[in-house]
């Protein structure tokens, strides 16, 4: 840790913040496992990204299957609420993060429900999850994970393997350690339902196309995971040679110019931007992926949407770690991994096209 600012920040946390919180949060130790059938009200904390929420739908399904009568709430953020709204089994959402006043209202509402047990599923921000759990359920049993220094936030801690396990397996392990071995079982696929209004808009848009489209997404959340537009132009041209289907090209909010440029460079009447103008909602993207013949995308939340909708997938990953923890799990998929964890923008188009051929062969495409 060479950054002097980070050294000062770390010293401040360990010398002042953690001791102060340790004095405030006096959580007595509780032995695991907890009898899931004895819980009246259960709260899950999941405030990170859209893709994380999609993957979490699997453990939500398992909890609902094992305890159909439990009252289950979830604390989410403005960043992932659009995915949470499409997950079945949650009785209520407490949305934080849009503004201080909205966050305080959400926390007060969550506290009023008197949750018996809180599971912190925010793995990369243990302090955030710990503070939220204690504010919402000061007398409830709070279960978390992380380093020993964070134990004071929780009544019980689980131990998770993050380096080699897929996130689905990590969540399953969290559940088994918390509720006992009977909680486990055959892994349940992710599941997202359609928003009816969004699905109608998508069906109206697709009604003008000659066949089910191939969806090509250009964007990823981080530069290392993002392809270069020139790569995707060549890959779209390869798809046009191999398939008669229309192609829709999507991108993240703020990258509409790249989407427009790629479509113009390909210059084929079968290729169109989606949406033609403005931005698509997450619910619209889920409805679209569900109705596509195939999804082509770098490592982003749409990987998990394809999993949840059983849509064949051609995915591009830049790191073996990301593939191990976040790769496709349930749908027919072909994955191409960068050599030596190099940026995706350096992947040869020939390797991307070879992945396309492998997927088409597995799909039985001529």
Which CATH first-tier class of the largest domain would you pick? Alpha Beta
Structural class: alpha/beta
- Assembly form of the protein: single chain
Radius of gyration: 22 Å
Q: What is the number of helical segments per DSSP (H or I, 4+ residues)?
A: 13
The overall pLDDT, averaged over residues, is 93
- How many domains make up the 3D coordinates? 2
Give the % helix: 40-55%
CATH superfamily membership of the largest domain, which one?
Glycogen Phosphorylase B
- Let me know the largest β-sheet: 6 strands, parallel
**CATH architectural group of the largest domain:** 3-Layer(aba) Sandwich
Strand content: 15-25%
Q: What would the keywords be for this entry?
A:
single chain; 366 residues; alpha/beta; Rossmann fold; 2 domains; six-stranded parallel sheet; 13 helices; 12 strands; 42% helix; elongated
Tell me about this structure:
The protein has 366 residues and is an alpha/beta fold. It folds into 2 domains: 18-183, Rossmann fold, CATH 3.40.50; 196-363, Rossmann fold (3-Layer(aba) Sandwich), CATH 3.40.50.2000. It is built from 13 helices and 12 strands. The protein has helices spanning 4-24, 50-66, 81-84, 100-112, 126-136, 167-179, 196-206, 229-242, 256-266, 282-290, 301-309, 320-326, 349-363, and strands at 41-45, 71-77, 92-96, 117-120, 141-145, 156-158, 214-217, 247-250, 271-273, 294-298, 313-317, 333-337. The strands form 2 sheets. A 6-stranded parallel beta sheet has the order 3-2-1-4-5-6, with helices on both faces. Helix 11 links the parallel strand 10 and strand 11 (313-317). Helix 8 (229-242) packs across helix 9 (256-266), helix 8 runs parallel beside helix 13 and helix 10 (282-290) crosses helix 11. The radius of gyration is 22 Å and the shape is elongated.
């Amino acid at each position: 840790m060479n950054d002097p600012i980070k050294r000062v920040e770390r010293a401040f946390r360990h010398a002042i913040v953690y001791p102060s919180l340790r004095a405030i949060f006096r959580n007595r130790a509780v032995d695991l496992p907890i009898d899931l059938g004895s819980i009246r009200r259960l709260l899950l904390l999941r405030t990170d990204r859209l893709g994380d929420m999609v993957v979490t739908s699997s453990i939500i399904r398992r909890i609902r299957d094992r305890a159909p009568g439990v009252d289950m709430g979830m604390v989410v953020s403005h960043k992932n609420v659009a995915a949470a709204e499409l997950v079945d089994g949650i009785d209520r959402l407490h949305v934080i993060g849009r503004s201080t006043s909205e966050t305080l209202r959400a926390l007060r509402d969550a506290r009023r429900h008197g949750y018996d047990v809180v599971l912190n599923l925010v793995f990369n921000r243990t302090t955030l999850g710990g503070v939220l759990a204690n504010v919402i359920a000061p007398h409830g049993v709070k279960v978390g994970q992380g380093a020993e220094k964070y134990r004071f936030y929780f009544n019980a801690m689980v131990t998770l393997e993050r380096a080699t396990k897929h996130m689905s397996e990590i969540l399953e392990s969290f559940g088994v350690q918390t509720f006992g071995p009977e909680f486990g079982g055959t892994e349940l696929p992710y599941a997202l339902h359609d928003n009816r209004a969004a699905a109608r808009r998508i069906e109206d848009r697709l009604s003008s196309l000659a066949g089910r489209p191939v969806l090509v997404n250009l964007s990823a959340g981080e530069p290392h995971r993002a392809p270069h537009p020139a790569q995707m132009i060549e890959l779209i041209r390869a798809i046009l040679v191999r398939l008669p289907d229309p192609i829709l090209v999507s991108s993240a909010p703020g990258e509409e110019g790249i989407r427009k440029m790629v479509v113009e460079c390909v210059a084929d009447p079968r290729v169109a931007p989606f949406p033609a103008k403005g931005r698509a909602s997450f619910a619209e993207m889920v409805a679209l992926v569900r109705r596509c013949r195939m999804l082509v995308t770098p490592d982003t939340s749409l990987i998990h949407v394809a999993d949840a909708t059983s849509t064949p997938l051609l995915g591009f990953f830049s790191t073996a770690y990301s593939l191990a923890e976040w790769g496709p799990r349930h749908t027919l998929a072909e994955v191409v991994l960068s050599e030596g964890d190099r940026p995706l923008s350096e992947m040869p188009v020939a390797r991307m096209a070879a992945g396309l051929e492998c997927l088409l062969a597995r799909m039985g495409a001529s």
